[in-house]
Design a protein that fits this description.
This protein is mainly alpha-helical. It is 71% helix and 0% strand. It is built from 5 helices and no strands. Helix 1 runs antiparallel to helix 2, helix 2 packs across helix 5 and helix 3 runs antiparallel to helix 5.
C-alpha cells in the first residue's frame, strides 16, 4: 500500500515538475535532458516494481541503478566540495532544476525509495 501511495504522489510531483520547472526553461542543456530521461525511466521502473510488471531486463535495471547512484554521487561531491568553485562546469552539464545543496539533499532523500525499487528490479531473474 505504501508503495502505491509513493507512486501516485511521485506522479503528481512528476507532472508538476514538468510544468513548473522544465516548462519554463527556454534553453535546455544536456543535463536537463539527462534528468528528464532518468526521471521518466526511473518512474517506469517504479511502476514496474509497484505493480509487479516485467518491463525491461534485470540487467538494464542494474545498469540504470548505477547510473542513478553515480549521478547522485557526482552532484553531492560537486556541490559540497570546493570543486564547484575551482571547476566551473560548462553550461551543457549544468542542471537548471537543482540550484542549491538543500534542494539536492531533499531530491535525493525523496527519490531514495525509487532507487531502492530500481535496485530490486535489477535483482530479479529475467
Amino acid at each position: 500500500m505504501w508503495w502505491k501511495i509513493y507512486f501516485w504522489l511521485g506522479a503528481i510531483f512528476l507532472v508538476a515538475g514538468f510544468i513548473f520547472v522544465y516548462g519554463k526553461l527556454e534553453v535546455w542543456s544536456f543535463a536537463d535532458w539527462f534528468e528528464i530521461a532518468s526521471v521518466v525511466i526511473g518512474f517506469i521502473g517504479l511502476y514496474a516494481y509497484v505493480y509487479k510488471k516485467n518491463l525491461l531486463s534485470s540487467q538494464f535495471w542494474k545498469i540504470f541503478f548505477w547510473v542513478i547512484i553515480t549521478s547522485w554521487t557526482f552532484n553531492l561531491v560537486y556541490m559540497f566540495t570546493p570543486l564547484e568553485e575551482a571547476l566551473q562546469l560548462p553550461r551543457w552539464l549544468t542542471s537548471s532544476s537543482v540550484l542549491n545543496e538543500t534542494e539536492l539533499i531533499i531530491a535525493i532523500l525523496a527519490n531514495s525509495p525509487l532507487a531502492y525499487a530500481i535496485y530490486r528490479l535489477g535483482q530479479k531473474r529475467s
